[in-house]
Known about the structure:
single chain; alpha/beta; four-stranded parallel sheet; four-stranded antiparallel sheet; 17 helices; binds zinc ion; Cysteine--tRNA ligase; ligase; EC 6.1.1.16
Amino acid sequence: MPLHIHDTLRREKRLFEPRNKDRVTLYVCGPTVYDYAHIGNARPPVVFDVLVRLLRRTYGSDHVIYARNVTDVDDKINQKAAREGVPIGEVTARYEAAYLADMGLLNVSPPDIAPHVTDYIPAIVDQIQAIVDAGCAYAAEGHVLFDVSSYKAYGALSGRNLDDMIAGARVEVAPYKKNPHDFVLWKPSKADEPSWPSPWGEGRPGWHIECSAMIEKTLGLPIDIHGGGIDLVFPHHENEIAQGVCAHGHAHGDQAHDEYARYWMHNGFLTVDAEKMSKSIGNVLLLHDLVQAMPGEVVRWALLSAHYRQPLDWNQGLLDQSRKNLDRLYGVLRDAEAALADFDEATLDEAEMELAENALDPVLDALEDDLNTPGAIAQLFGLGNTLRELLNDAEADINDVAMARWSLKEAAGLLGVLSLTPDAWFEGGDPALKAEVEALLDQRASARAAKDWPEADRIRDRLNALNVVVMDGPDGPTWRVKG
Ligand SMILES: Nc1ncnc2c1ncn2[C@@H]1O[C@H](COP(=O)(O)OP(=O)(O)OP(=O)(O)O)[C@@H](O)[C@H]1O
Ligand SMILES: [Zn+2]
């Protein structure tokens, strides 16, 4: 089944047809780097990482261009830098580095392009100028504002009607705005705030314009897929479309939004007790803390366990179940590794490789159905079960075992899981556990050397409680978690 995706703009599942199969383009709104990301913020990059893996498999790795921006100009960044008394670049570098390291632990591959706002100010100024020239924006008191009444299809993405919005507006309106929903493209900076020159004075760009300008500059219009969290539909993505379309003088076209992005995908919220995880509510768990405490694959698995458009409730049970599922599949892989120790996968012939490829179809079918990751996970278990049955069958052909292992690992690669060796998973998949076990083994060695048997027994009990089996060998002890 070819890929179908739910398009937020058309409100239906549609066959995905890229504009150019040799250059499939995808843009996802990335982090504002002023603090550690919470686990809700990690949902979009993980979900779209699976989409990119699928696109690369379909169109070829070099034919997919994925851009995820870094917002390094923002009032929250300014506030943080001012509080710490450091330049904004110090704050943004710190949190971007942490973000990328944490994404790495989640097996999120880096995007092909990671545009930073501070590197694209001239492109942003050019796009604002084009919008002004098209009659869709106006300058007032050092600001440049987008005139929402100038864009005929404003509201198409979010399903809002501008007249209703105006009637319902209760926001306090800045005096320089013609219409309460006009939004900022450029704003003046105070003396202590970062600023860049522009035809409208020293200042900085608004948030929405950065994405439309960087999309045009890095990927070119229209892009194939634009993604982000559901909270970005309005106003951020609505405004991006208005800017991108109007910069090219097409404000009056009915279908002009097609000239900006051809498919819109939005992930649902990660929730805690049915409430959005959000800094403003204060119910956040930091991704950075979580990936210190457990293997990134556990977090990734949990994030993919629900369909991306559905809410995902985050709780300890979800994490425990994710770990159990991974333990089970790594357990199968460990046994397969032992069975295939003397087998060279390269000896599988073409017909066998084709069969192994075909076994992936149910996983691909699930992912191609609007990125149905829970369905794909169920099929991954099917592949795990097939391999387990072959391992249990003394009569099984070793080539069949090798094919089944290949299919399981290949399918897992599409989801970005089972990326470790079974040994690394059972011993070191959990950095905190690894540190604790190794410390206990050191203490055990000292206790034994000192013939302190009660202490040695206490340590053994502690290792048991951690569900760890220790194997004493000639090169010292090795250990694994009981599978
Ligand atoms: N609870 C959530 N579940 C899923 N995605 C989320 C959640 N919270 C934020 N996002 C997504 O994370 C990305 C970054 O969002 P944003 O910059 O608004 O983060 P934030 O200001 O830290 O969020 P918040 O104020 O909600 O804590 C966006 O794509 C947004 O849609
Ligand atoms: Zn954006």
